Amino acid sequence: MTVGSSAVRERFDEHGPWLTRFWLDGEAFGGKTYDPAADPRIAMFKSRAGPLKGQRVLELGPLEGGHTLQLAGEGASVVAIEGRESNYQRCLFIKELFGLDSVEFVLGDLRAFDLASLGQFDSIFNVGVLYHVEEPWTLLESLGKVSSRMFLATHCIAPDKVHASVEVDRCFLAGDWWIERPVKDRLSGLQNRSFWPTRVSLETMLVLSGWTRVEWLAYEAGHVNGPLASLWTERSADRFR
User: Fold this and answer.
1) Domain assignment present for 16
2) What phi, psi does 47 have (nearest 5°)?
């Protein structure tokens, strides 16, 4: 099979429909929804994580392997956990097509997954997942057991949209419940609702979960899908376990 040939396009079609655009020899394949090669969050991650060559990176929710391909291209060894079987199969196809020997895709639901079974990681790439989780504070605490450094990109709720709060460790986190799209939708979470905190509550949630250093890299208040936050977070040595 020649890269860039019609045979490659046929194989993409066999595994479609796709959301992610991939590039081979200057030719676009797959979907048109988003192009991870142009995603600035990869650069944000690298700016804080440092050179990725030789790093062991945990990626949450790879979808179809677009970000994974970018991370592996930087020399990282990636373990990526995907919750949907259909997306997982597309990820395996991308791994085969691009020869991603340093990548391991794992099928699993983060709500019940034993992250500690994967060992320790130099850093975490947590993009587009937290706002699909009903108890994001629980996931954040679990992530702190496998790495002391994390890049996080997630949606928040605008202050004027607050209609709920949750109590975590005797602190009240302001936000709202987001009703997910039907679970069969590839861009939805695996449960019926998720909790979106405000910007202030997101930082409080991180600190409560043991992420004691929080650096804001970007905050798009006017994002079409709700305020979009990008952060670099670390756990102090005495909290890392």
Assistant:
1) no
2) -65, -25
pTM: 0.94
pLDDT value, residue 240: 45
| Other beta carbons less than 10 A from residue 221's beta carbon | 12
> Is 140 a domain residue?
yes
Give the structural domain span for 157. Answer: 40-234
DSSP-derived secondary structure for 162-212: --EEEEETTEEEEEEEEEPPPTTSTTS-SSSEEEEE-HHHHHHHHHHTT--
Using a pLDDT cut of 70, give the percent of the chain over it.
94
Is the sign of the CA dihedral 40, 176, 198, 152 positive or negative?
negative
The domain spanning residue 136 has which CATH number? 3.40.50.150
Measured between alpha carbons, how far is 97 from 164 in angstroms, rounded to an integer? 46
pLDDT per residue as tens digits for the range 161-174: 999 999 999 999 99
In a domain, 241, yes or no: no
CB 141 within 8 A of CB 168: no
Two tokens at 167?
Answer: 């109590």
* Residues 114, 73, 70, 85, CA torsion sign: negative
What total number of domains does the chain contain?
A: 1
Least confident of 5-9, 68-72, 103-107: 5-9
What confidence tens digit (pLDDT) does each residue in 11-25 have? 999 999 999 999 998
At residue 241, the pLDDT reads 44
Residue 6 belongs to a domain = no
Q: Which one, of 171, 159, 58, lies nearest residue 118 by Cα? A: 58
